[in-house]
Design a protein that fits this description.
The chain is of the alpha+beta class. The protein has three domains: 45 residues; 41 residues; 186 residues, no CATH class. The chain is 36% helix and 20% strand. The chain contains eight helices and eleven strands. Strands 1, 2, 3, 6, 7, 8, 9, 10 and 11 form a nine-stranded antiparallel beta sheet that branches.
């Protein structure tokens, strides 16, 4: 018996062809019917009936695996669909019921006609956090604390949270390391009520005499032009993202204003730091991105905290 004939028959049987089809193909190729019949007989006697090899994707394990994958995909699609519905509902509710506050509690927006003739320097000296100030404030918990140091909104910025962190673990404004302070309050604000995300951080800190390196550092930059010039020596205005510093004053209150305009690489940033030397108090406005109206927002806050 020709080995080639036997190999051909075995191969085609394993591929799932019927005996009749194989025989027909062999006869058309010129093989003798007797040899073809004999080949099937020998294969059957030696190896038994050869089962056709099923394609891999029709095996039991493959079928079970495929079903599991399909179920997982359906589950993921369904989860995403319900999540998306929930997000749309939240956004629709936010648009229908914006987090507004009564006019007497709101702070004027950028275009307001707030008077800036107040003596802010004297006012800042008197800022106190009342004993009954809530530990945590959120936009849906309005406050009647006077002055309201962390109002529900400042212009187009809306409060996310306001809290009184541990006075023994207060983050240094300059180094970021924990220090001990007399008192402090911090609040985060967003420029988008629907999407959230912190865009402005407002921090008030009164330092202890024994640990006020932060305060001394910033007061020197606020008041001493030579110290600010020395500080800026390493800041080349020709770099891709230079930061510019300015010493400003409003209502007798001196403050340091710095900004990094946004460019093709970053969104920039803006910040303002003011202080009251008589009580080692710093007020910091830190904008996460460049804010062209940063000073207007700061003055708006001042006018609310220090009314006529």
């Amino acid at each position: 018996m020709d080995p080639k004939l036997l190999d051909y028959v075995k191969k085609n049987l394993r591929q799932g062809l019927t005996q009749a089809t194989i025989e027909q193909n062999l006869l058309q190729a010129g093989w003798n019917i007797q040899d073809v019949k004999q080949a099937f007989t020998e294969i059957s006697n030696i190896n038994g009936i050869i089962e056709p090899v099923k394609p891999w994707f029709l095996g039991p394990k493959a079928i079970v695996t495929s079903l599991i994958l399909i179920l997982l995909m359906v589950s993921l699609i369904a989860s995403f669909f319900f999540w998306k519905q929930k997000q749309n509902k939240i956004q629709d509710q936010a648009k229908a019921n914006p987090q507004s506050v009564p006019a007497e509690q709101s702070i004027l927006n950028h275009e307001g006609s707030t008077s800036l003739n107040n003596n802010f320097a004297e006012c800042i000296k008197t800022i106190q956090i009342p004993a009954d100030y809530p530990t945590v404030l959120t936009p849906d918990i309005p406050t009647r604390v006077i002055p309201d140091l962390t109002p529900v909104n400042i212009g187009n910025y809306y409060r996310l949270t306001s809290e009184l962190p541990d006075k023994n673990q207060w983050n240094s404004l300059y180094s970021g390391q924990p220090i001990q302070v007399k008192f402090g309050i911090g609040a985060s604000y967003t420029a988008d009520k629907n999407q959230g995300g912190m865009d402005l951080e407002l921090v008030l800190t009164e330092y202890l005499e024994i640990q006020k390196e932060d305060f001394d550092f910033y007061i020197k930059l606020i008041e001493d032009k030579s110290a600010l010039a020395e500080f800026q020596k390493g800041n080349d205005p020709n770099t891709a993202n230079p930061t510019f510093y300015y010493q400003r004053e409003v209502g007798g209150l001196k403050y340091l204003f710095d900004e990094e305009p946004k460019n093709e690489f970053t969104g920039g940033h803006s910040s303002i730091i003011a202080g009251a030397k008589e009580r080692s108090l710093l007020v910091s406005f830190g904008f996460q991105k460049y804010e062209p109206k940063a000073e207007e927002i700061f003055k708006t806050w001042l006018s609310s905290v220090c009314p006529n």
